[in-house]
């Protein structure tokens, strides 16, 4: 019986009951060593009708790629053939059984699918102990899969300490374990037969830590010269128990603690070389310090393992690693054992670790590769080799998401090398790490320096570094001088006669759109984007993402949407999960402004989810700001406010996401008729530190309308001037239409009508329905005030019909109110026929099913399980008023 853990046991029972009902779930247990995390995992094991997969992190195993993943999934690998090809390939590659995955997140998607397949036979519970010691590749895969559990009979229970390496469980259910209450601690001591005055002192000194109560009580009186941390006290308590064992047993346990597999056969083979044997294990088993289960030697607690290892002499520990290296059949473990067995530099072992790092990279385990190369650098006798290996380690760390360590390592290594290529690589690492960490000025300086240093050795790489420097400026507060100089620097990096010239000109166009300078010497924009996209396609998806981003910057929304759709199709086919958040986020914004609201809801929702799951919070925030704008159009105040505050960017800050979010809040207030609040929000957008973004120019019509209705039209003059210049540069009908609308609002005479008519003529008929309906509404309101009721009624009816069709509720209400003022007519608002009350994910799945895709193929494309797909279809049918899959094509038009 677990004393004092009733609430925690109830939470585990609820998780078990949940997975029995085929509803996936996850629970994270956090707490200090000995607080009872492992005991709660053991409690979960008592459920007899649930199949259990189990793994535990080991400190010595944390650098072996996918060790923790393979440990748990080994019993269900027979399900691999059932997975979709990209996922089967990714997981096989991770385990060294085939080609490596292109994307580390695809491995997490494959884990999810494998668990879902295994759970078809019986409910499945995954227990992950000491997650803070798992190798990074395994931990990333587990967390990706855990976040996407929905309607699979799979539960994941994770135990971890609060220390470096612990999983980021933001948004997942968590329990923080505290010490036992005094009365429960006393009952535990009763169970142990501890009596007398020592009881209260023990409870007080351990703060109710269950392991400490057990082990310190068993160890007997202990004295200390001063305060000793609880972990050290526990280690000492375990040490006293180990000291009571025969010397051969202690030597055997030191060897076992040095091993990172727990494989008894491996330890048995190594034992004779250190003067011990498996017979010496009996005393430790009798004392309850270890147990043997299915060929594995398991210490009672990780701290006991630590005590057994550090309790041995240095010579014993070194010898243990040497003999284990000799008997292991795993090249990576052999390299790490050799590294642990050496004192001082050793080039042969450094070479072995370098090869281990390369194997880890080939399997997509960049964190393990980084650790291997960093240790290889320490063991290198040659200074240049050490620098090269440290540089490799830092590059891999950026890829693995360890940007802070990578940045520190790069900057510390930089002064030690005189090689220009190594300097360039280190500067690039620092710049990319600082960009991720949002130290934009530092990133800009280092990326420019890196591109200059790289120019002579690798001109093309230097060019793309310069392009990244342009992005850093774009993310800063507006600085036209810095932006133009950085773009000019990029142009100077373009190799003579290179096709990259098209990309450089595209960056110049983005600067032109931001600054409103002369465009006379610039090539035509639309053919230029097409050429730049062709150049980028030859260089891979990340280059094409750059071109897509610039297409958004220069307001070619349809072109950007087309490139994004191409990237998404390719990423789904190749299993490149990491590309999806950026492409989906930018696609969602383009779809919002183009008026494809259903599609935008699907794209944006997936971008937010995948952005969070892959740690790309900036793209999650970008997509949420696009969805906030959609919610503002539709008058959904609660959702708009929630989305505008999501992620690292907050409304009104210096990020692009914050500016877009604040523009959305301004539109929301305007639509709801709260004009003063709208004016304040939109004035903040126009007068804030970021003025070069297209979202600032696009919100000028909202600002002008709010200013006019507040009687402060003169205060919109500067914003209107910038917007007019921007429209001339962009040379698009829709930008001209917005400027004409603003001029009509500001007109003090009858010229307003001509301006409204011209604006309506300029609005495209096949896209941007909200913008066109806004102009129609304002024209109708102007006609009503001019007492031209028949003309006003015609315009207002048109506006209301469009607003109702796109579910822009407050704007439809405003049009209806104007109509009532014209002739007293009213009409109930209708809902978009194709919405059907479906959630974004239900709609996405229903559309794919309507296109003829099978559940398994839909699951692979969306990184879900087939059971989750089936569940969402089951929920969608009644909402659509149908009973079967065959009827989907009658109510949904596939995209």
List keywords for this structure.
Rossmann fold; 7 strands; Arc Repressor Mutant, subunit A; Serine Threonine Protein Phosphatase 5, Tetratricopeptide repeat; five-stranded parallel beta sheet; 65% helix; 895 residues; mainly alpha; two-stranded antiparallel sheet
Structure, explained:
There is one protein chain. This protein has 895 residues and is mainly α. Among the domains are: 6-176, Rossmann fold, CATH 3.40.50; 222-340, Arc Repressor Mutant, subunit A (Orthogonal Bundle), CATH 1.10.10; 626-812, Alpha Horseshoe (Serine Threonine Protein Phosphatase 5, Tetratricopeptide repeat); 840-891, Arc Repressor Mutant, subunit A (Orthogonal Bundle), CATH 1.10.10.10. Helices cover 65% and strands 4% of the residues. It has a 5-stranded parallel β-sheet with strand order 2-3-4-1-5, with helices on both faces. A two-stranded antiparallel ribbon has the order 6-7. Strand 3 (124-129), helix 6 and strand 4 form a beta-alpha-beta unit. Helix 25 packs across helix 26 (525-539) and helix 25 (501-515) runs parallel beside helix 27 (541-553). Residues 223-228, 646-655 and 826-835 have low confidence and may be disordered. It comes from Tenggerimyces flavus. Residues 831-895 form the HTH luxR-type domain.
């Amino acid at each position: 019986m677990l004393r004092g853990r009733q609430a925690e046991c109830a939470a585990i029972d609820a998780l078990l009951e949940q997975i029995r009902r085929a509803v996936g779930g996850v629970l994270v247990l956090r707490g200090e060593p000995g607080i009872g995390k492992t005991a709660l995992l053991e409690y979960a094991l008592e459920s007899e009708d649930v199949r259990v997969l189990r793994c535990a992190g080991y400190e010595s195993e944390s650098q072996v790629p996918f060790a923790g993943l393979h440990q748990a999934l080994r019993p269900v690998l027979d399900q691999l053939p059932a997975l979709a090809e990209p996922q089967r390939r990714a997981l096989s590659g991770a385990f060294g059984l085939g080609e490596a995955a292109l994307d580390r997140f695809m491995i997490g998607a494959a884990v999810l699918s494998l668990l879902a397949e295994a759970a078809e036979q019986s409910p499945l519970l995954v227990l992950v102990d000491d997650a803070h010691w798992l190798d990074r590749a395994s931990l990333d895969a587990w967390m990706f899969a855990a976040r996407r559990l929905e309607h699979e009979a799979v539960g994941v229970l994770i135990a971890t300490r609060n220390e470096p390496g612990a999983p980021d469980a933001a948004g997942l259910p968590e329990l923080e374990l505290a010490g036992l209450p005094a009365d429960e601690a006393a009952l535990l001591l009763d169970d142990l037969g501890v009596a007398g005055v020592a009881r209260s002192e023990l409870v007080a000194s351990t703060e109710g830590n269950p392991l400490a109560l057990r082990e310190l009580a068993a160890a007997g009186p202990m004295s200390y010269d001063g305060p000793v941390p609880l972990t050290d006290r526990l280690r000492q308590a375990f040490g006293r128990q180990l000291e009571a064992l025969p010397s051969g047993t202690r030597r055997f346990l030191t060897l076992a603690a040095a091993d990172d597999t727990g494989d008894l056969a491996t330890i048995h083979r190594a034992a004779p070389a250190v003067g011990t044997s498996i017979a010496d294990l009996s005393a430790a088993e009798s004392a309850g310090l270890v147990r043997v289960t299915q060929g594995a030697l398991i210490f009672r607690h990780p701290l006991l393992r630590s005590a057994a290892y550090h309790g041995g002499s240095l010579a014993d520990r070194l010898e243990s690693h040497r003999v284990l290296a000799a008997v292991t059949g795993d090249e990576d473990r052999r390299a790490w054992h050799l590294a642990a067995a050496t004192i001082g530099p050793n080039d042969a072992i450094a070479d072995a670790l370098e090869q281990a790092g390369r194997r880890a990279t080939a399997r997509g385990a960049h964190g393990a590769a980084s650790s291997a190369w960093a240790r290889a650098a320490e063991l290198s006798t040659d200074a240049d080799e050490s620098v090269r290996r440290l540089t490799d380690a830092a590059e891999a760390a950026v890829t693995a998401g360890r940007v802070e360590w990578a940045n520190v390592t790069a900057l510390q290594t930089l002064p030690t090398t005189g090689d220009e290529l190594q300097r360039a690589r280190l500067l690039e690492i620092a710049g990319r790490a600082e960009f991720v960490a949002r130290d934009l000025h530092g990133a800009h300086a280092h990326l420019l320096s890196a591109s200059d240093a790289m120019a002579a050795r690798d001109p093309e790489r230097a060019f793309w570094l310069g392009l990244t420097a342009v992005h850093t400026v774009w993310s800063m507060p507006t600085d036209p001088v810095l932006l133009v100089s950085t773009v000019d620097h990029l142009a100077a990096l373009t190799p003579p006669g290179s096709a990259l010239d098209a990309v450089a000109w595209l960056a110049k166009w983005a600067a032109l759109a931001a600054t409103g300078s002369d465009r006379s010497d610039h090539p035509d924009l639309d053919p230029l984007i097409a050429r730049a996209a062709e150049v980028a396609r030859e260089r891979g998806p990340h280059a094409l993402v750059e071109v897509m981003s610039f297409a958004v910057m220069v307001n070619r929304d349809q072109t950007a949407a087309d490139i994004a759709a191409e990237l998404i199709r390719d990423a789904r086919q190749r299993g490149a999960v990491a590309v999806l958040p950026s492409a989906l986020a930018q696609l969602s914004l383009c779809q919002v402004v183009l008026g494809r609201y259903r599609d935008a809801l699907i794209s944006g929702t997936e971008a937010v989810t995948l952005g969070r799951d892959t740690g790309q919070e900036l793209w999650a925030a970008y997509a949420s700001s696009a969805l906030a704008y959609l919610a503002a159009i539709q008058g959904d105040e609660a959702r708009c406010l929630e989305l505008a505050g999501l992620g690292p960017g907050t409304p009104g800050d210096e990020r692009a996401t914050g500016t877009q979010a604040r523009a959305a809040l301004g539109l929301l207030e305007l639509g709801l008729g709260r004009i003063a609040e709208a004016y304040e929000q939109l004035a903040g957008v126009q007068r804030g530190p970021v003025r070069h973004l297209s979202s600032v120019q696009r919100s000028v019509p909202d600002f002008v309308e709010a200013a006019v209705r507040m009687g402060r039209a003169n205060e919109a003059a500067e914003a209107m001037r910038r917007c007019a210049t921007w429209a001339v540069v962009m040379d698009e009908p829709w930008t001209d239409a917005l400027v004409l609308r603003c001029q009509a609002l500001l007109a003090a005479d009858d010229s307003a009508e001509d301006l409204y008519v011209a604006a309506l003529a300029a609005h495209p008929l096949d896209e941007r329905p909200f913008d066109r309906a806004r102009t129609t509404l304002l024209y109708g309101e102007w006609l009503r005030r001019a007492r031209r009721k028949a003309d006003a009624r015609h315009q207002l009816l048109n506006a209301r019909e469009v607003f109702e069709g796109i579910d822009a509720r407050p704007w439809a209400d405003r049009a209806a109110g104007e109509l009532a003022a014209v002739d007293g007519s009213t009409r109930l608002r209708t809902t978009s026929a194709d919405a059907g009350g479906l959630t974004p994910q239900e709609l996405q799945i229903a559309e794919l099913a309507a296109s003829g895709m099978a559940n398994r193929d839909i699951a692979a494309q969306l990184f879900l399980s087939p059971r989750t797909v089936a569940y969402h279809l089951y929920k969608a049918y009644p909402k659509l008023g149908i009973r079967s899959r065959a009827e989907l094509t009658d109510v949904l038009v596939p995209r």
